[in-house]
Amino acid sequence: MAEKNDKYGKELDLAVRIVHMACSLCQKVQQSLVSAASGHVLAKDDDSPVTIADWSVQATVSWLLSEFLEGWSVSIVAEEDVQTLSKPEAASLLSAVVNTVNECLAEAPKYGLQCPKKVLGTSQILEAISRCNSTGGPTGRHWVLDPVDGTLGFLRGDQYAVALGFLEDGKLVLGVLGCPNYPMRKELLNYNHQCNQIKPTSPPSSDIWQKGCVMYARRGTGQAWMQPLIHGDTKFEWPNSATLLQASPVDDPSLATFCEPVEKANSNHLFTEGLVNSIGLKNRPMRVHSMVKYAAIARGDAEVYIKFARSGYKEKIWDHAAGVVIVEEAGGVVTDAGGRPLDFSRGLYLEGLDRGIVACSGPILHDKIIGAVYASWDSSNL
Ligand SMILES: Nc1ncnc2c1ncn2[C@@H]1O[C@H](COP(=O)(O)O)[C@@H](OP(=O)(O)O)[C@H]1O
Ligand SMILES: [Mg+2]
Known about the structure:
Blueprint: H1 9-37, H2 48-68, E1 76-78, H3 83-86, H4 91-106, H5 122-130, E2 141-149, H6 151-155, E3 161-168, E4 171-179, H7 207-210, E5 213-218, E6 224-228, E7 243-244, E8 258-260, H8 269-278, E9 286-287, H9 292-298, E10 304-307, H10 321-329, E11 333-336, E12 357-360, H11 363-377
Parallel strand pairs: 1-2, 8-9, 8-10
Antiparallel strand pairs: 2-3, 3-4, 4-5, 5-6, 6-7, 10-12, 11-12
Helix pairs in contact: 1-2, 1-4, 2-4, 2-5, 8-11, 9-10
The protein binds adenosine-3'-5'-diphosphate and magnesium ion.
Adenosine-3'-5'-diphosphate is lined by residues 146, 149-151, 261, 263, 265-266, 289-290, 309-310, 313, 316, 319.
């Protein structure tokens, strides 16, 4: 077991194993989605596969955390609620979730965890999902879960993440980020040409694409780690070939790569283009779904991540928690556009966030971006 004698060692060890299991669950669901769509265009409004993955991951993570930590009193802030799933018309969805969760939990021994003594029933699974109704806040211990971050990426057979953070007394102390499609070569992350449908043969089902990883960090250690996902009959053995992550040393903007959301609706591409041009960034933006953008900064595949949501949009803590601590421990800097740290202590949202989010591989680039925000804000079209 990892770092058991250290503070949060037990929680980190468990969270990493759980996120590995959740990634495997997602890969199976996404694979069935790719097979189902093989040769066809998946209906754009058919979001049931991602819904199954969302609820199944939430139920699995909730059940495992409760089973191996403080029992039913464990506090989890998570994206999904149980209402839709409890409706009579969602019966087949619910039954798919029940099967998916039980299949995943049956694999627990492979990850060094015990599986349930009996297959979980529908009511236990609904209870596990609905238990994740904490609203976090400034005191106590809270897990923060985004079961499938980047739902569009998931549906498109593209990038998505499973994100699990841990807060104590309002401070972010652990982050675990599963990136099941994170390619080993950064070029494969670059999706400027969005894929609007599942593309079973592109990227190729090569070894590179199948890899995937789990990143994790504990606040204050100055270290962030990455483990490959396990495949087939391989058993998860700590430290599971963990390697240290190091954010990029590049601090010359002309050599830096910046990443941002794929969706224009989620971040103002025009504003960020002006911003990065003004400090001399030349590389094309790396547009990637989900918190994989934080992963790219932590691994040194990109130097800058900027997100400026439309005014009035409130950023949720689960969309950032895991990624922020990993980037910071890998040597990066994450703040709002005013240069202040993100505040995870005020409930479901990053309350008080100044305009947008700026994550950089180091302080020099970060200062430049923040300076550019001040210089260009008044003339911006936000
Ligand atoms: N209008 C909006 N502006 C900014 N972010 C939004 C948004 N609508 C949804 N999001 C958030 O952006 C996340 C996706 O991030 P990105 O665009 O970087 O891939 C979504 O996570 P989910 O996919 O988990 O819902 C969602 O929480
Ligand atoms: Mg999300």
